[in-house]
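Table S2 (continued). Query chain:
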Amino acid sequence: MRFLRTHPGFSMLWAINFTSSMVGWSMGIALSVHIYQLTGSALWTAILAATPTVSAIVFGHLAGTVADRWNPLRVVQLTLLARVVVLLGLFVVAESPVWLAILVFVQAAVQQIYRPAEQVLIADFVSAEDLPEANGLNSFASNATRLVAPALGGFVIAVVGFGWTALGMTAFMACSAILSLTLGRWFQQSPPSEDAEMPDGSKSVGTYLKLLRRSPRARGLVLLQVLDAVKEGPLSALFPVLMLGVVGATSTEMGLANSAFAVSAVVAGPLIGVVIKRLGYQLTVVGGAAVAYSLIVVLVIWPSFPMAVIAFFLSGLPFTVSWVGSQTWLLLTAPRSMRGRVVGTNGAVYSCFTLITMLGSGVLADMIGVRWVIGVAAGVALIGLVPVHLLLRSVPKPTDASAESEGQK
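Corresponding output:
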């Protein structure tokens, strides 16, 4: 809490993110329940679930460009207002599955535009040294709402119905939009974080691909995200099959195992800044991912409900520390002029690989078995950490100067 008190601009943005994340998780559950009750169709339910992934692929790079070329504060304020309008629209078209799907797609597109601008804004509110702690607290807010909000959404829709749930969540989102109007005072007073320089001394590398070509560290961090998508796609798609079909768990036990991840992930949030300062970025990022991926392999070898709970609980903390650390390090590696594009394009790349591996895992599972698909995918991700480690330990170029001092601590 001391960090929030000493960074008033970030603390206000954190409160906004906490509220909007609560709305997002609650409405996600309420929408999935409502669309299934309305249509009785698994296809419609799946379409709504896949919409955010498709939106990330389509709008990821564009969202990053918007964050770089426009004032990120204005982008955050406008997207929050747009989410209020979309939520109000869900109340209006509550009985039309087609319009619900359209508005969910619009909402996902708005959220894609919001995220890079929000990440750029956080980096402007705090120094490069404080950025890991800021992103860790942001992760804490997301995981804390993940624990509470789905149950809240399910409870509220059962009591008052979908329409009134959407109307109530609209009011909460309106509070976030109003709070965002106060951010200007701190945004104007806070100097931007130091910009990373390229080998030729310039402050811009032009394009995302040029950054990857000229920075081994950027290549290593992007490769890490691709490897995680290779692991996460099959795990997300086939986890119900693994638990219900292989382990023989009940749906309640499956939910408990899944929630165990968020329990330790919440604990990780406030610790991220300290861990990175003590261990450095490289050990935090690669080591955390190695532990998390290894636990998935162990679960596949010895599948059971107790092992699932243990594996997900133990992987929540190292994975979250690794993921947030890699996102922060990549943000510091990129020049200030293209941080939005880095965040947005990486989101699109991650979503694309996740979608491909999700679809592919469904086909392969019928051929070679669920355990083999999940296990091989996690094993590939684990082995892939070797080239990631080699890229991250490469002699840093000037583009990495803003993060190097932290990485060696």
